[in-house]
Amino acid sequence: MKRIGFIGVGIMGKSMVRNLMKAGYELHIYARTREKVEDVILEGAIFHKTIKECVQDCEAVITIVGFPKDVEEVYFDTGNILDSAKTGAYLIDMTTTSPKIAEKLYEEGTKRGFYVLDAPVTGGDKGAKAGTLSILVGGEKEVYETCMPLFEAMGTCIHYHGKAGMGQYCKLANQIMIAGALSGVCEAIAFAKAKGLNLDTMLKSVSQGSAGSKQLDFFGEKIVHGDDEPGFLIKHFVKDMKLALIEANMSELELNVLSQVLAEYEELEVEGYDNKGTQALYHYYE
Q1: What is the pTM of this model?
Q2: What gap in Å lies between CA 139 and CA 91, rounded to an integer?
Q3: In this predicted model, what pLDDT tens digit does every residue of 140-180 receive, in sequence order?
Q4: Is 171 a residue of the active site?
Q5: Active-site annotation holder among 129, 171, 239, 276
Q6: Which among 12, 73, 154, 229 is least surrounded, fewest beta carbons within 10 Å?
């Protein structure tokens, strides 16, 4: 594989495009607004005005868009990926979306002669920039193995989880863990502030002990210093938590921590924080 189509050149996607180009792939990109991707165009990505033009001659197509409805649009709308990609292409959806959509895409794509994987990622904007993402893959194992060089250009923790949709289930488990860990970080900082602790010293004291976590490493200092800039948007995390709760309800699981954290984030959305980073959860405690 040499020629790759890429749709979803946002906070995460832009760094993933760069890492694929560094690995020697020819990147063809589509974005609704060219001005937002001028930097990667200058670095060598080839811009197309339509999805059809972007994907029609590519050996693989990668998507990482915002919401399940966006996945359905870019794949299933008339004239988009399933209608335009060449038979035998590899279609890799790296969006966090519904496992049911992943299964639907696999079934329809396979019927049309494509090789389809769901491969959501975790690791945030830092992992995307560094090329150290965790990539969680569902689909046919032989297809996963064929696409490994692509994954290795973007990530370092790459695992196969089973049939179509299983990558999405693993990603939702990841988001459940983050919800608990990040809310714990926010509550601890709120407590420390109320008791008059020096917050920077507090972070240094606990980060190397049993309370240490990726969420603390990524967001502790940002929370303490009022930095709400997004590595991952609140509105996308809310979407992920809702997907996890739907799947939990279908399995008759009661996930109380996830439900509480989702309610807190939904309150922040109402207050206008939807395009802030997930660490802005701290404002709920203020």
Answers
A1: 0.95
A2: 11
A3: 999 999 999 999 999 999 999 999 999 999 999 999 999 99
A4: yes
A5: 171
A6: 229
